[in-house]
């Protein structure tokens, strides 16, 4: 059984550890934890961002680095004059949309994704919007979550300014990183050998993304927030490839949650106990993290491709788990299997996961192979089983 689930702490001033080896599967259950830091990254620090100084210099406004935490930790009510919207639409729904823009916080102009709840939205949508604001304020600042910059109400419309993540969602980014061009083969013993790589991302970058997500989720779990929909599509990437957990604003702020409403369930990333009994805990999110790790290693593959919702639950009850990707080392796959333990209490904490992935990053061994073999095939992306493929909660199992 895992233990040692004390929350990890991201320290701005800290030194990176340099472990010499990766523990065996047996050692992974020791549950020891340490202070987790990502400060060894030399570029794109999550603790600061480039912003334009709000002033009168026009096109020559200069960029400066200031701590992002100082701007967002006390997110505030914004005035309409603080917000500038562009015509670039980032997303849309029945009662609202998300547009690219900027907001002024503490005199600084910051790029932002601005959620707009349209005038005339129904009461349920307004309640959801307010709940999202409340939860984001509750969890506070963290470098590996999408942070709230501020909120505004103007002429009956509500606006929520969020941190901008320039590279969009992780799932699309992974799939776009797949190297599509096949280079000309060389021949060895009259057999063609194809060179090249699986992704424009390196093994270390892939693991770093996973480590960032584990750090962000550890912060959410320390605030008793259950995400319930952790997946690659709900992680955003900055221009320096820092991963930020997103869409947790409609999560639950309790340690355990039993779902009673008829809410759609993303069954491909949902834990066994949540599918079967609608019971959610942080350990349910850990299961989902294992699926996300599989998505990262497969460069955006579709979990349980071709299976229907009834089939997935039945197979999981029988002990079936996603197979090891061909480009994945056994130790990394074992980490996924730990996330998919049947008993939630046997699964690791997010602190444990962040620690073990950090050790793999520091190790010289490559745990994700991105070199194409002679007969390599990508995990298939099934557009019919896309990220919107959900099991409605009215369907009883």
Automatic annotation (TrEMBL):
Residues that, per the record, bind ATP: 115
Membrane topology: Single-pass type I membrane protein
Main subcellular location of this protein, as a coarse class: membrane
GO MF annotations in UniProt: ATP binding; transmembrane receptor protein tyrosine kinase activity
Compositional bias (Polar residues): 36-58
Keywords for the protein's UniProt record, in alphabetical order: ATP-binding, Kinase, Nucleotide-binding, Transferase, Tyrosine-protein kinase
SUPFAM superfamilies: Protein kinase-like (PK-like)
Any one cellular-component term (Gene Ontology): receptor complex
Residue ranges of every copy of the Protein kinase domain listed in the record: 84-368
GO biological process: cell surface receptor protein tyrosine kinase signaling pathway
Gene3D superfamilies: Phosphorylase Kinase, domain 1 (3.30.200.20), Transferase(Phosphotransferase) domain 1 (1.10.510.10)
Subcellular location as annotated: Membrane
InterPro entries cross-referenced by the UniProt entry: Kinase-like_dom_sf (IPR011009), Prot_kinase_dom (IPR000719), Protein_kinase_ATP_BS (IPR017441), RTK (IPR050122), Ser-Thr/Tyr_kinase_cat_dom (IPR001245), Tyr_kinase_AS (IPR008266), Tyr_kinase_cat_dom (IPR020635)
Top-level taxon of the source organism: Eukaryota
Region of interest (Disordered), ranges: 21-58
Catalytic activity: L-tyrosyl-[protein] + ATP = O-phospho-L-tyrosyl-[protein] + ADP + H(+)
Record's protein name: Tyrosine-protein kinase receptor Tie-1-like
Species name: Branchiostoma floridae
Gene label: LOC118431526
